[in-house]
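in:
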């Protein structure tokens, strides 16, 4: 029988929450730039090509952050040393790459809001995979808070009858890929693996995975599209660093619900960039998401 997980200290939990919020904002910025990329040129850019820029920028930033510290490279505790840890790292990369490709595919073929909402199912899958893989039990309050936040997300997106078919199923699969990847992030964090190294290895892995698809399907881009996609990559790097450190500071079951704030950030950026104004159902969804997050945070902060 799995032992009950030890809750993070209040200071560590606050750091985890802040990192997840920064991550959500970064990924919302990324989604905005991904949408802008298709509007800045005459031809639509394939999802895998967009993903290459997203991962290439993250690889450069993470590589610089890690390799500029010689002590990090020499320190055995910061790098995977055994087969099981390398296996966890490869699973993190595999699930993460699947999540990115599926998300970018969905952003290309269905409305951005729908794709964002389907991808925001990641916290639900994180909690589910944490239970299956890590043996971390969820109490009723945590389950209800995450379920409530998911309902709030559905108010925001207002899915139609055809949402869970065709291209949208791939969007939902992006949530599963991301959620599973975040679970392995937490495992690696508990082992003391350097966060910058994890991001660098994952980004390099994803870049290599893009190459076979681009050999026969690369689409020429305008200078503006290149700039926009580089901005998308920088925003994704912010999101990746935030999510990596967030799950190092606290357990997935404690902070996963805050990932839903990305929907709120996306709506705010949509208003600024595209003049989109949320309707009453969206505002209700925002309120539900915030209330669920606060309920979960304050109860956990008051629990030793």
């Amino acid at each position: 029988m799995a032992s009950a997980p030890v809750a993070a200290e209040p200071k560590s939990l606050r750091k985890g929450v802040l990192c997840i919020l920064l991550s959500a904002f970064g990924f919302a910025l990324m989604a905005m730039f991904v949408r802008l990329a298709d509007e800045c040129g005459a031809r639509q850019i394939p999802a895998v090509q967009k993903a290459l820029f997203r991962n290439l920028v993250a690889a450069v930033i993470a590589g610089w952050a890690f390799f500029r510290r010689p002590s990090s490279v020499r320190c055995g505790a910061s790098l995977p040393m055994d087969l099981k840890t390398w296996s966890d790292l490869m699973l993190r990369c595999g699930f993460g790459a699947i999540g990115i490709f599926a998300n970018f595919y969905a952003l290309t073929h269905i409305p951005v809001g729908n794709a964002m909402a389907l991808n925001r199912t990641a916290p639900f899958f994180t909690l589910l995979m944490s239970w299956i893989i890590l043996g971390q039990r969820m109490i009723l309050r945590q389950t209800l808070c995450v379920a409530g936040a998911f309902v709030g997300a559905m108010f925001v997106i207002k899915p139609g009858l055809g949402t869970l078919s065709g291209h949208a199923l791939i969007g939902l699969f992006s949530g599963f890929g991301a959620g599973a990847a975040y679970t392995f992030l937490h495992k690696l964090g508990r082992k003391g693996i350097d966060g910058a190294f994890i991001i660098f290895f994952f980004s390099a892995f994803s870049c290599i995975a893009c190459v076979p698809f681009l050999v026969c399907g690369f689409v020429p881009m305008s200078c503006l599209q290149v700039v926009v996609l580089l901005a998308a990559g920088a925003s994704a790097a912010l999101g990746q660093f935030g999510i990596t450190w967030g799950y190092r500071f606290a357990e997935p079951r404690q902070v996963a619900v805050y990932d839903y704030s990305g929907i709120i950030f996306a709506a705010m950026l949509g208003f600024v960039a595209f003049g989109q104004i949320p309707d009453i159902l969206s505002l209700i969804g925002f309120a539900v998401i915030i209330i669920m997050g606060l309920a979960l945070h304050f109860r956990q902060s008051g629990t030793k």
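note: Residues 1-6 have pLDDT under 50 and may be disordered.
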